[in-house]
Amino acid sequence: MASAVALRPLASFAHVIEPPFSFLIVGDWGTGGALQKRVAKGMMSVSKASGARFVLSTGDNIYPSGVSSASDPQWKTKYESIYQGLNLPWWSVLGNHDHRGNVDAQIAYAGTNKLWNMPGQTWSKQFDVSAVTKLTLVALDTTPIMQQADGWKDQLVWLDRTLSVTQGLRIVVGHHPIRSYGHYKDQAHLLKHVKPILDRHNVNLYCCGHDHDLQVIRNPEDRFTCLVSGGGGGSRETSKGAHSVLAHAGGGFALATVSKNGLAVTVYDADGSEKGRVDL
After folding, report:
1. In this structure, is the dihedral angle defined by the CA atoms of residues 96, 102, 108 and 113, taken in order, positive or negative?
2. For the segment 36-88, what is each residue's pLDDT rounded down to a tens digit?
3. What phi, psi does 18 have (nearest 5°)?
4. Mean pLDDT, the chain, whole residue set
5. Which of 65, 74, 72 is nearest to 95 (CA)?
6. Extended strands (E) in 55-122
7. Which pLDDT tens digit goes with each residue over 124-177?
């Protein structure tokens, strides 16, 4: 009778290939109009192909004046019914149009809809992309900063402190652009007060909306790349500037992908057709 042989797993089995970690980025979306619905279908197509884990919203979630409560019917007409086929968690920040309504209601809506995440006016969230790679999202409420409302400097202190204890890839998201060649251009107040903090902590990417277009900007004066993704429900003409990598008008969204090679951003038009990819 043959003796038993101890079997060992093949060495190659020990090396698990981690799938890319990707998520959609869209802003300025909650109009309830035709372009929003078209962009939503494009997002569903790209989500299915990419295996996107969630949606990052850059604000102006409900037009024209935010919501009145967590049960405001606009949640149904401008969010739930339009993205119901997407079935992904949303991590969201506030925009200036959201501040026209009840800000606390957008935070409270998470108790009504399990897919909606807005832990506060500012928040941070760490994702374990793989055994060795971490990604942290740090969310700002840029409207009080831009308006220099009471306590706006406290938000800067919080940002600096939060970034100082994070590891791995860092993405900061806020509604207003630091850099833009679109309608609103560079925002001097954010350049003066937010940019130095992002530079000091070697942030990888700043995501925003407000301009109703899509842009990727790499200014040599910044240690981070700027992504404008504000084409989720409206569109304005945009332009390319000296430091533009990509610029697109007509509606659309972006996809961020984290892999063993690092972080990449892909820009899509309203129908989900790729307009360009940038490795950061």
Report:
1. negative
2. 999 999 999 999 999 999 999 999 999 999 999 999 999 999 999 999 999 99
3. -80, 130
4. 93
5. 65
6. 55-57, 90-92, 116-117
7. 999 999 888 999 999 999 999 999 999 999 999 999 999 999 989 999 999 999
Distance CA 193, CA 211 (A): 20
In whole angstroms, give the CA distance from residue 75 to residue 136: 27
User: For the domain 18-279, what is the CATH code?
Assistant: 3.60.21.10
Domain boundaries, the chain: 18-279
Write out the two tokens for 143. 């409207």
pLDDT at 130: 87
The pair of structure tokens assigned to 38 is: 């078209």
| Contacts of 47-53 spanning 24+ positions with Cβ under 8 A | 47/86, 47/88, 50/20, 50/22, 50/255, 50/257, 51/19, 51/20, 51/22, 52/22, 52/23, 52/24, 52/88, 52/255, 53/21, 53/22, 53/23, 53/88, 53/89, 53/127
Helix, strand or coil, per DSSP, at residue 46: helix
Q: For the chain, give percent helix, strand, coil, nearest 5.
A: 25, 25, 50
Q: Please name the residue that has the structure tokens 């090679």.
A: 261
Inform me whether the pLDDT recorded for 180 exceeds 70: yes
